[in-house]
Amino acid sequence: MRVLEVDHPLVAHKLTVLRDKTTPSPVFRQLTEELVTLLAYEATRDVRTQPVEIETPVTRTVGTAFTKPTPLVVPILRAGLGMLEGMTKLVPTAEVGFLGMARNEETLEAITYAERLPADLTGRQVFVLDPMLATGGTLREAIKFLFARGAADVTCICLLGAPEGLKMLEAELGDAENVTIVLASVDDRLDEHAYIVPGLGDAGDRLYGIAG
Ligand SMILES: O=P(O)(O)OC[C@H]1O[C@H](OP(=O)(O)OP(=O)(O)O)[C@H](O)[C@@H]1O
Ligand SMILES: O=c1cc[nH]c(=O)[nH]1
Ligand SMILES: [Mg+2]
């Protein structure tokens, strides 16, 4: 498993405003989108491409095109939905599948309540979007699910991660060369409720309001 913490002043600045508890939802949504676009630039470095011959107004030349089938982007509902627009802006030809998952806040177990993905993901490159990697339970289940469907490799784009969650994923998937986690920051720790510290609070609530 590869972990890439993106070190860039634009990312650091936007993340600081995002963390601020006085930042209202509309600004939070806008910043999330902008951050994902910056992270996606790094996360797509190994996207599969092939040479393609084209004609410019001047001459014929060989350029680069995505290899088919195109990448599949999977936002994890709810909070991951706030990252979708930022990703598809950069990769507009990507297909999009959905996973609805929620962490039980008492047991911390991740449950899957919705799934709309191609039945066969054989050979597909998959980009998972979820802003928070706390205990890592949600991403572990999502990654397992995608490999069970045949995905070739999985890159998770997150805003924040906790060392505890990364350690757990490393222990479970450490040998997997086809898993990459790209984050804006690896924070300090989890608190007693398994919230990321310093974190940004509940990403879903800050994007969309309090869950029922
Ligand atoms: O690493 P974990 O400990 O599993 O926690 C992280 C998960 O918690 C949040 O979702 P949540 O369950 O709050 O659902 P929501 O997006 O609907 O708010 C977050 O978006 C992750 O999916
Ligand atoms: O800090 C955290 C942990 C889990 N889910 C969130 O939205 N935030
Ligand atoms: Mg939530």
Please give a quick description of this structure:
It catalyses: UMP + diphosphate = 5-phospho-alpha-D-ribose 1-diphosphate + uracil. The chain has 212 residues and is an alpha/beta fold.
Fill in the keyword field for this structure:
9-stranded mixed beta sheet; 212 residues; Rossmann fold; 31% helix; 13 strands; alpha/beta
Descriptive report:
The protein is α/β, with parallel strands linked by helices. It has one domain (2-48, 67-208): 3-Layer(aba) Sandwich (Rossmann fold). It contains 6 helices and 13 strands. Strands 1, 4, 5, 6, 7, 8, 9, 10 and 11 form a 9-stranded mixed beta sheet that branches. Helix 1 (9-19) runs antiparallel to helix 2 (25-43). It is globular, with a radius of gyration of 17 Å. The model has no long low-confidence stretch (mean pLDDT 96). The structure holds 1-O-pyrophosphono-5-O-phosphono-alpha-D-ribofuranose, uracil (URA) and magnesium ion. Residues 79, 202, 204-205 line the site of magnesium ion (MG). Uracil binds next to helix 6.
Topology, pairings included?
Blueprint: E1 2-5, H1 9-19, H2 25-43, E2 49-55, E3 60-66, E4 72-77, H3 84-90, E5 95-96, E6 98-103, E7 110-116, E8 125-129, E9 132-133, H4 137-148, E10 153-161, H5 163-173, E11 179-186, E12 189-190, E13 196-197, H6 203-208
Parallel strand pairs: 1-11, 4-5, 4-6, 4-8, 8-10, 9-10, 10-11
Antiparallel strand pairs: 2-3, 6-7, 12-13
The structure holds 1-O-pyrophosphono-5-O-phosphono-alpha-D-ribofuranose (PRP), uracil and magnesium ion (MG).
GO molecular function: GTP binding; magnesium ion binding; uracil phosphoribosyltransferase activity
EC number: 2.4.2.9
GO biological process, one term: UMP salvage
